[in-house]
Design brief:
This protein has 1 helix and 13 strands. By secondary structure, the protein is mainly beta. Strands 1, 2, 3, 4, 5, 6, 7, 8, 9, 10, 11, 12 and 13 form a 13-stranded parallel beta sheet that branches. The protein is globular, with a radius of gyration of 15 Å. The protein starts with 8 loop residues before the first strand and ends with a helix. The model has no long low-confidence stretch (mean pLDDT 89).
Length: 121
């Protein structure tokens, strides 16, 4: 099972195609094709064969396949090896593994400048 999954899980399986708006309060995994608008209160996992073309709002995202769209992610985005993300991203933490591709802009929450804190001390 995926990291961070608590209880319920919605799944779009390999070979399945979904187009439209999907909003779930729990985790979702996509191994098929999804196009539209996607919102989840927990973890979105895009499997290695998953293809997603959508604007996405989620708590966390693990991308193993291909994603195109604008992402607003509360906590963390991880791009696994051989994955692709095309679009603009707003998140707190970003992990890009070897072999992953990211084409777009990334905006991250402001982190306190450690150097300025040292000068104030």
């Amino acid at each position: 099972m995926d990291k961070g999954i608590k209880g319920l899980l919605t799944m779009i399986g390999d070979g399945a195609v979904f187009e439209g708006t999907l909003s779930v309060p729990h985790s979702i995994r996509i191994d098929g094709k999804f196009k539209g608008l996607l919102e989840t209160g927990e973890l979105l996992t895009v499997g290695p064969n998953g293809i997603v073309e959508a604007d996405i709002k989620a708590k966390s995202v693990i991308i193993g396949g291909w994603v195109k769209g604008n992402l607003t992610i509360k906590d963390r985005v991880e791009l696994e090896n051989n994955s692709s993300l095309i679009g603009d991203l707003h998140t707190r933490d970003l992990v890009i593994n070897d072999g992953a591709a990211f084409h777009g802009n990334c905006s991250m929450e402001k982190i306190k400048n450690v150097e300025s804190e040292k000068k104030e001390a």
